Every structure is written in structure tokens, then in C-alpha cells.
Amino acid sequence: MVFVAVAGVCVLLLVLAFLAPRLSRHPQRGAQKSLGMGARGAGKAPGSLGRWLSKPFHSSNRAVGRSGRAGRKGRFHMPF
Fold first, then answer.
1. Residue 47: is it exposed, middle or buried by C-beta count within 10 angstroms (0-12/13-18/19+)?
2. Cβ 45 vs Cβ 53: under 8 Å
3. How far apart are CA 4 and CA 45, in angstroms?
4. What is the distance, to the nearest Å, from the Cα of residue 36 to the centroid of all Cα atoms in its chain?
5. pLDDT tens digit string along 16-31?
6. What's the chain's Rg over C-alpha atoms?
7. Are 57 and 38 in contact (CB under 8 A)?
8. Spatial distance between the Cα atoms of 28 and 11, rounded to a whole number of angstroms
9. How far is CA 20 from the centre of its chain?
10. Residue 15: which pLDDT band, with cuts at 50, 70 and 90?
11. Are 31 and 13 in contact (CB under 8 A)?
């Protein structure tokens, strides 16, 4: 279920970044901020359990950043 939500956010950011590159920065930062809060909360578990629990949040955060960057990069390379 979480995977579907993160994938949906990534697709939404990709489309938004392609259509309106400047307007996509704020939603991307919001998504990354909420994923960062989840990672920090999960990282408070003791020992290596904290690293294991926060890893999905870190990888999702990276995916959100990459999808926004890819949309803006694709828009930049368009001829119009």
C-alpha cells in the first residue's frame, strides 16, 4: 500500500515538474519533508533496527527527488 502511494507521488511530481518546473519545487519539498520525518521517527528505534526501519523512507525520499529532477530535466531538453 505504501509502495503504491510513493509511486503515485513520484508520477504526480514527474508530470508536475514537466508541465510547471518552478511550481513543482514546493510539492517535492513537502513530500521529502514528510518522508524525512518518517525516517527520523523510525530511526529512533534502538540499534540496527532503527537503520532497517528508516531505510524505506530514505529510498522513497530519493525516488521523489529523482522523479522531480527527471521531469524538470525533460522539460529543459524539449525544443519549445
1. exposed
2. yes
3. 25
4. 10
5. 999 999 999 999 999 9
6. 14
7. yes
8. 11
9. 17
10. very high
11. yes
Name the grid cell of 14.
514527474
Question: Cell triple for residue 62?
Answer: 530519493
Instruction: Map grid coordinates 522523479 to a residue.
Output: 67
Distance CA(19)–CA(40), nearest Å, equals 32
For CA atoms 40, 26, 68, 73, give the dihedral sign.
Answer: negative
Which three cell numbers, joined as nine digits, stand for 37? Answer: 520525518
CA–CA gap between residue 41 and residue 54 (Å, rounded): 8
Give the residue among 17, 20, 46 at the shortest CA–CA distance from 54: 46
